[in-house]
Amino acid sequence: MSKLSKNQSISNLIWLWQKSNQESGNTLIIAMSLGLLLIAATTAAIVSSTRNKTNVTATEASVQAVEVAELGVTRSHNFLAQNPEFALAPKPANPKWDASNAPILATTIPEGSYANTSGTKSTCGQVLALPTNQTAITEASSNSEFIFAQNVDNSDANKGSFEVLNYVLRKPNGQDSATTAEIIANNDSFGVGQVIGFGELTLRSNVPDPNSRSQVKVTIPLVKRQPDQIPFPGVWLSGQNTASAPSSLKADLMVTTCDNVNLNIEPGYDVIISSVTFPKLPAIPSGIPDLGTITNEIHLPRVNSSGVVTDTPDSNGIYHYVVDGINLSANQDLNIIPGYKVNLYLRGRIEPLPNSSVVIHECSNMTVNGKLYTCDSANPQNATSDGRTGYTNFNFKIFGYGHSGTPHATVNPSDANFGTNYSSTSPNNFPYVCLRGNGETMAFIFAPDYSVGVAGTGSNDGFQGALWVKKWVDAGTVSGCTSNTSQVAAVQTINAWSDVGLVPQNIPPLIDNISKWEREAVN
Q: What residue segments make up the domains of the chain, in order of their start?
């Protein structure tokens, strides 16, 4: 093999060097390209992962917003069920929904019955303060916040919030808008259990991180309620605007608020908080006997010298009488013969009676002008052969039409000028009924513009039945009717609306289950 020349060797070395440099450059380019591709792929993966995570988070937030809206609807529905007067109040037209009511709502007691389980007589406020009642009150009151923007959890705003945007009333067809007055009119004319209208509630929820919102509209049927679903009160006070005496009651007490109510409720009886109002007073029958002011001994129905009843009842066996007032003289009694139904239509007042005088209606034998009227105390409702219908405490009813200034709203227009107008500011110049602490009066008294008090200390549970008036007087308000007895002043022995033939007005509707649910575009 011949040797290469020096020039050939140098040329080969230059070629190899050039070749080596050329391949080294390609490798660098490839390496750089691969690096760029890896960077791009990694970036794309990161971007895709971030986008997916964002989409998942947004979806979760949207689901959470719907869940918050559902919770808001549930709380709103519960609030309306516990405070049904709001169900008749469109938002924002009715001031009940105004934000300025927030402090009021926080202290307003939800409607319902609150039992005195303390084992001792307690005032209205003390009954509400009992632990079992406070639990119910707190639970119901907390729902009232739904009217305004409310966090699901006040300790963590990130869990979301909701707010009622609107609440409107619809007619029973579910389409046409309705007013509060129209729904109330339906409540008067429709049958029990019928839908008198609908409440349509719009609510918006919000989840702040990320910001996601949901808006729903639900339809709630408003159903006419059975009157007997409202508890029957033994004592019903419609306007206790001054402090009452601390008399004791063996009765369920109905009020709108415990303010100024110092009456003591015996154990086992309830405080009823309700917005219902008095029924209408019955129309006064025409042509009935007018007895003027009763001052002397009398038996009703009236009798002849042989003790035989001479008055004529109506088709229901009721004897009706107009009286200007009851102001018995000493040793003179007003006696209701047991077994007869007697209605008194009172223009004026029942004055404090002498200790020796009482209004008597009870199941006991009574002799009138030599004639014996018996009453079977074991079976008092047994009818007798002499035209009597059998004894009940509500056989005797007193309806009071007196007023201060203008007739009470419960008075029918035809009777507007019937009751005495006590319009001056002189002492004791207002309509009142003074009960005897030691009497045996068993009756139903309904006098919507009257005050009531008790004369004497008594020990016989003097009044028994049911008593519906404006307020209970304080000691000294009515001269001779101080209500300062430590004994029981009234005992409830009438327990049903049907017993007295009357039902309250403004009975709130029954809030039925939601009938329609719609998601809406967020405003």
A: 78-225+510-520, 235-500
Phi, psi of 197 (to 5 degrees): 165, -175
Nearest by Cα to 205 from 493, 508, 522: 522
Instruction: Give the containing element (helix H, strand E) for 51.
Output: helix 6-82
Q: What is the pLDDT of residues 418-474, one digit of tens each?
A: 999 988 666 678 899 988 766 668 899 999 999 998 876 555 566 899 999 999 988
Strands (E), 233-333: 235-237, 248-250, 253-255, 264-265, 270-273, 293-294, 298-300, 318-323, 325-326
What is the per-residue DSSP string for 376-440? -TTSTT---TTS-----GGGEEEEE--BSSS--TTS-GGGTTTS-B--S-STT-S-EEEEETT-E
Residue 291: is it exposed, middle or buried by C-beta count within 10 angstroms (0-12/13-18/19+)? middle
Q: What distance in Å separates the CA atoms of residue 510 and residue 398, rounded to the nearest whole number?
A: 32
Q: Which residues contact 419 (CB under 8 A, 6 or more apart)?
A: 347, 348, 400, 401, 402, 403, 407, 411, 431, 449
- How many beta carbons lie within 10 A of that of residue 168, not counting itself? 15
Q: What angle do CA 275, 279, 281 make, to 5 degrees?
A: 150
Evaluate if pTM is beyond 0.85. Answer: no
Q: How many CA atoms lie within 13 A of 64 on its CB side?
A: 19
Structure tokens at 102: 């927030």
64 token code pair? 């959470």
The sign of the torsion formed by the CA atoms of 102, 103, 107, 113 equals negative
Q: What angle do CA 403, 396, 433 make, to 5 degrees?
A: 35
Question: Which letter, b or e, does each residue of 199-230 get, where b requires 16 or more Cβ atoms within 10 Å of its Cβ?
Answer: bbbbbbbbbeeeebbbbbbbebbbbbbebeeb
d(CA 477, CA 245): 10
At residue 506, the 3 state secondary structure works out as: coil
